[in-house]
């Protein structure tokens, strides 16, 4: 598989060893693990991220939630609407700003958040079985550096 493509000038092995390729592969695999856990709770990844932001930051706005979850505003709007349709979150419009809304979870939403959080802890524990405690901490630190660096350079 390491034979070079004459027109591209690189091999499949070289491509698979690129940092961006490895990060994308790891992200995709973690998302698959997470989706399997969330599926039983009838939550999408976007809905989980929305619900987690709403439950951990009561009174948050859609704009704040989008920044917290690091997903697009249209996708976040869809996720919040789906949570509202399931009667998990409430939306209130402040009197002083009719264009924005404040989001909060109700009791049913908080209960689902706790179940989803437990499911996501299972995913994290499965990943930590692959790494030592030190390795897991090092990976978190390295990912923090990558995210911070990308955010500082403006993506």
Secondary-structure map with pairings?
Elements: E1 4-5, E2 10-11, H1 12-16, H2 19-39, H3 45-56, E3 60-61, H4 62-69, H5 73-85, E4 89-92, E5 102-105, H6 107-130, H7 133-152
Antiparallel strand pairs: 1-2, 3-5, 4-5
Helix pairs in contact: 2-6, 3-4, 3-5, 3-6, 4-5
Essential attributes:
155 residues, mainly alpha, Arc Repressor Mutant, subunit A, 7 helices, 5 strands, 66% helix, 9% strand
Write a structural description:
- The chain starts with a strand and ends with a helix.
- The protein has seven helices and five strands, in the order ββαααβααββαα.
- It is globular and about 60 Å long.
- α2 (19-39) packs across α6.
- The protein has helices spanning 12-16, 19-39, 45-56, 62-69, 73-85, 107-130, 133-152; strands at 4-5, 10-11, 60-61, 89-92, 102-105.
- β1 and β2 (10-11) form a beta hairpin.
- The strands form two sheets. Strands 3-5-4 form a three-stranded antiparallel β-sheet. It has a two-stranded antiparallel sheet with strand order 1-2.
- It has one domain: Arc Repressor Mutant, subunit A.
- The mean pLDDT is 88.
- By secondary structure, it is mainly alpha-helical.
Short description:
With 155 residues, the chain is mainly alpha-helical. It has helices at 12-16, 19-39, 45-56, 62-69, 73-85, 107-130, 133-152, and strands spanning 4-5, 10-11, 60-61, 89-92, 102-105.
Strand order of the largest sheet: 3-5-4
Number of helices: 7
Biggest beta sheet attributes: 3 strands, antiparallel
Q: Quick one: how many beta strands? A: 5
Low-confidence stretches: none
Radius of gyration: 19 Å
Shape: globular
Helix fraction? Answer: 55-70%
How much of the polypeptide forms β-strand, as a percent range?
5-15%
Look at the structure and give the mean pLDDT. Answer: 88
The CATH topology assignment is: Arc Repressor Mutant, subunit A
How many separate domains make up the residues?
1
Determine the structural class based on helices, strands and strand pairing: mainly alpha
Termini Cα gap = 33 Å
Q: What is the CATH architecture descriptor?
A: Orthogonal Bundle
């Amino acid at each position: 598989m390491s034979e070079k493509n004459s027109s591209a000038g690189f091999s499949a092995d070289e491509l698979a060893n690129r940092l961006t390729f490895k990060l994308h592969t790891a992200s995709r695999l973690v998302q698959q693990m997470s989706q399997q856990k969330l599926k039983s709770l009838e939550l999408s990844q976007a809905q989980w991220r929305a619900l987690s932001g709403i439950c951990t930051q009561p009174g948050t706005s859609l704009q704040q939630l989008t920044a917290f979850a690091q997903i697009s505003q249209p996708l976040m709007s869809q996720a919040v609407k789906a949570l509202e349709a399931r009667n998990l979150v409430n939306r209130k419009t402040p009197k002083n700003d009719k264009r924005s809304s404040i989001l909060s979870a109700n009791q049913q939403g908080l209960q689902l958040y706790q179940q989803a959080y437990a499911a996501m802890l299972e995913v994290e524990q499965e990943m930590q079985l692959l790494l030592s405690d030190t390795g897991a901490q090092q990976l978190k630190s390295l990912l923090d550096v990558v995210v911070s660096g990308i955010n500082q350079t403006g993506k």
